[in-house]
Structures are given as structure tokens and as C-alpha cells.
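Quick one, T. Sequence first:
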Amino acid sequence: MSETEAISKFACPACGGQAVWNPAKQKLICPFCGTESPAKLDVTTGGIVEHDLAAALRGLADDTRGWKADVRQVKCQSCNAISVFDPKRQAQNCEFCGSAQLVAYEETKPAFRPESVLPFVVSESAARDRIRQWYGKLWLAPGALKRRAMTDTVKGMYLPYWTFDAQIDAQWTAEAGHYYYTTETYTENGRLQTREVQQVRWEPAAGRLSHFFDDDLVCASVGVHAALLRGIEPFPTSTLKPYDPGFVAGWVVERYQIDLIGAAQASRAAMEAKIQAMCAQQVPGDTYRNLQVRMAHSRQTFKHILAPIWLMSYTFGAKSFQCVQNGVTGAIQGEYPKSPWKIAFLVIAILIGVIIVMSLGGRH
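C-alpha cells:
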């Protein structure tokens, strides 16, 4: 797991407090006096750059590295989160697990800095309401869970993502199978019977496929459970804004720990699996075998972005759970404990239902 605290501070012009980005008003707002900051986010100058992947992997894109600010980094000994924050700030606890076991962390190579961001759209109050609705519908959860004020632990944060573009041109060959049926004669109980038997006629087949992948997402977070994040994706990258510190002022920002090489490998594997499936769909007939696909990759680019989520982390008994909400679309995925008593009652109810159905069926 890993995170960073927003490095840049935006002072309120009225009281001097730190203004933060307000998703509902889409402005910088002072949480102390409510003043709307006149600061304007520079989102119109300089487009969102797609970087050449091959050049970056060869180490030729070092101009995109480094925070360009004095920062201090600590690593959580409990969950391995890496926090990056202003040197004047004293880290007390890990934002993801709450542990106070933090030690100094030194980077071996400066990190890629984010260059585009998806601003929060779902406000904190709306996020809390959605999460209350979510755990209010958890029938198998213990009753004590619903009585807890869990939304007190909801935190807004930006997660690191890599996006990858690639043009893939593929050629495929396979054996296409076409079903046909023959009549078979057999003997049963001394009587001659016939039946239709499915056969397969195999024929050679070949084809071509071209597909462009645009903003294929690979999450670089290890602080939030991967299965939950897949459940709230995708993020609408078409609405990305050029990075401006104002968007993340006052928010927690996670620093990636899945690096460009690992993310590029994961993206390539996912793209090739999709191309393989798309080629399989092109094979004529009813079935196929021996599918062979040759792929050529071109126009491979990447960028490092920040995507917003609302995270609720809580413990119940001896276990930890997370609930995650997409900060743009509001999609929710969560983990929760199951009551053994409710599960037992459910199993008994199912068994009773099966017995009733079987008994009714036996009367006819």
C-alpha cells in the first residue's frame, strides 16, 4: 500500500486556512470560513501528454520524474504504505491501516510524477449516503455492523493509475469446426434403436484483426484491494484534466508502488488476451482448435494519472475490511463480515424449500 499527502498548500484569502478542492462546487473552498478561493486551476494550458513507452523503458524520459519539491517519505511497517508529504508535517498514522509503525523511506530512483487528474465529482456527503445505503442492504452481515457509525472513517483520496495506448495488428490461423449429424443404430433391451450423433468437420481458417487500445487502465495502488477496484472501474479518462496541485489540495494522494515496467507487462498481457479472444470470435463455424495468433505492437504510449476514490476501512472482530467508491461515477464495491447464524438460517431455509418441492413433485 502507498500514499502521499498533497504537497502544495492553497491559503484561504480570508482567514489564511488551507483551502481544499470541493467536488460539489468544483472550486477551492476554505473548510474553516467557507470562503471560495479566487485561485483558478490552470487546466487550459498544455495538453495531456502521452509518453513513448519504449523511450521511457529505456530510461529516456527522466524529465517526467521527481516531485520537484522538498518532500519527506515514510513507510508503514504494518501494511507497507509509502507516504510522501511536506517535510514540516509530522506523520502520526498510516492513512490506510492506521498503524503508527512508520519509518523513513528513501527512493532509489525518483518517481514519475502525475501529469493528469480526474477531479472528485461525488461529494463527501453523497459518498457517505451511498455507503450507508450499501451496508444497509447487507442481509448476511451481523446486526452489530449496521449499528456502527462506520462512515466516520470514510476518506477521500487519489489513487495512482497508469494508462496505456497501443495499436495491435494480428494475423491468426485455426482449424474451424462445423457441426453435422449422422444417424447411429444401436440395440437396447433387445430392440433396434436409432439416434442422432454430433460430428465435427474440420477446415483450415485464417484472418486478420486490427485494434487500437485507448487508455487501458492499470492500477498502481497496493493500498486498496485490487478486486474492489476492478469492481468500481472504469474511470472516465475522457474527462482527465492536466495536473494542477489545486485538484489534490487537502486530499491524500497515493504514490505508486507498481512501477512502469510491471504495469506495462500487465497491460500488454491483458491486451494480448483480449486480442486472442477477439480473433477466436472471428473463426467461422461452431467451434475451433489450434488457434495461433501473431501480433505486432505499435503506437505504444503511456501516462501516469490520479483517479479519485472514497475509502472506508474498518475492523470487525479480528479482521479488516474495505469499502471503495468511485469518486466520479459513484460505483461501490465492499467487503463485509458474514453472520454464521444468518448463513445457517439461509441454508436451513433452502433445504426446507428443496424438501417441499420434492414432496410436492412426488405427489403427481
